[in-house]
Specification:
By secondary structure, this protein is an all-alpha fold. It has one domain. The N and C termini lie far apart (137 Å).
Length: 126
């Protein structure tokens, strides 16, 4: 509202209620505004309290979910590492067996070649 509008309202109130009633009306209006502000503050405080409780609940749920996910992730990582270690162990065992078999076959071939070389050298010297 602008200044002239407020002035017109004050003149109308003076004409309707008179100068003697104006202080009483102003007090009633002030008390009403004070009560309205108090009620507004109470509502705001109640909403803040409720939202704080909701925020607290959300934080607790979030923390619980985060902990559960972390625990599951740790368990999966541990299981994957265990399986990987077992696979590495099995692969190393198989590789060692293959190396052993190859070395044995190589030694047998060398021995057979040496034997064959010895047998042919005796045949030519006779």
């Amino acid at each position: 509202m602008s200044g002239p509008e407020i002035f017109v309202i004050v003149i109308v109130v003076l004409l309707l209620f008179g100068a003697e009633k104006l202080p009483e009306i102003a007090r009633s209006f002030g008390k009403g505004m004070r009560d309205f502000k108090k009620a507004t503050d109470d509502i705001r405080r109640e909403i803040e309290t409720s939202t704080n409780e909701i925020k607290k609940d959300f934080t607790e749920v979030t923390n619980t979910i985060t902990k559960d996910v972390t625990d599951i992730s740790d368990n999966i990582t541990r299981d994957v590492n265990e399986v990987a270690d077992n696979i590495k162990k099995d692969v190393n065992e198989v590789a060692d067996e293959i190396k052993s078999d190859v070395n044995e076959a190589t030694d047998n071939i060398k021995k057979d070649v040496e034997d064959a070389t010895r047998d042919t050298s005796y045949e030519y010297t006779d």
